[in-house]
Amino acid sequence: MASLIDEIRAFRLSRNGLTAYAIALVVIILDQASKAWVLGPLDLPDKVSVQVAPFFRLSFVENPGISYGLLQSHGGVGRWLLVAFAAVVVLVLAIWVAKATRGLTVLAIGLILGGAIGNNLIDRIRMGWVADFLDFSQIGFQWVFNVADSAITVGVIVLLIDSFLTSRPPAAAGPV
Predict the structure, then answer these.
(1) Cα separation of 154 and 90, whole Å?
(2) pTM for the whole thing?
(3) Which of the listed residues 53, 57, 87, 110 has the most CB atoms within 10 Å of its CB?
(4) How would residue 9 be classed by pLDDT, with cut points 50, 70 and 90?
């Protein structure tokens, strides 16, 4: 615990940190605006589902769990445990991005940070659940998700790609 407190005290906002926070802010705005539209003017909860394209529809799902409906927790302690976990993740990512030097790492952290704040902090504190509505089940995808879920998923994929790129050994020099 002492090392985490030392990390927080030593925290300095770098250019990469600002970039990641800007990416996170864009994700939060897109996520919250899309949910406001789905829950407000579109009134998707009353319609349940709206066909948009042959492979895509908007389908309302009230998700008390985490990304893609995992770990369902209807209110109570579970809700606040998910909020606490998300808050810790956000804090760790905020510290990590201050030390990040690679562009892909900064992009990934910004996407994950924005998704975690949009879904697991704002929505869960405000409503106790997350509004999922992007539905590709007509092409075999099983889950209904939202912009924040997408950002988290893409961020994790980018982070994995970045880790593979950094862990490659240097090319061996051939005979001269």
Answers:
(1) 17
(2) 0.81
(3) 110
(4) low
Q: Which residues contact 168 (CB under 8 A, 6 or more apart)?
A: none
According to DSSP, the β-strands at 56-63 and 130-135 are: antiparallel
Q: What residues have CB less than 8 Å from 48, skipping those under 6 apart?
A: 59, 60
> Residues near 45 by Cβ (< 8 Å), separated by ≥ 6?
39, 60, 62
In a 10 Å sphere around its CB, with 0-12 CB exposed, 13-18 middle and 19+ buried, how is residue 167 labelled? exposed
70 Cβ contact partners less than 8 Å away, ≥ 6 residues apart: none
Distance (Å, whole) CA 121 – CA 86: 7
Which H or E run contains 133?
A: strand 130-135
- Whether residue 49 contacts residue 60, with contact meaning beta carbons closer than 8 Å, is answered with yes
Instruction: Please name the residue that has the structure tokens 């862990």.
Output: 167
- 106, 41 Cβ separation under 8 angstroms: no
User: Active-site residues: which are they?
Assistant: 132, 149
C-alpha span between 21 and 13 (Å, rounded): 10
Give tens-digit pLDDT for 81-111: 888 888 999 999 988 888 888 999 999 999 9
Within 15-146, residue ranges assigned H as helices are: 15-39, 44-47, 76-99, 103-115, 124-126
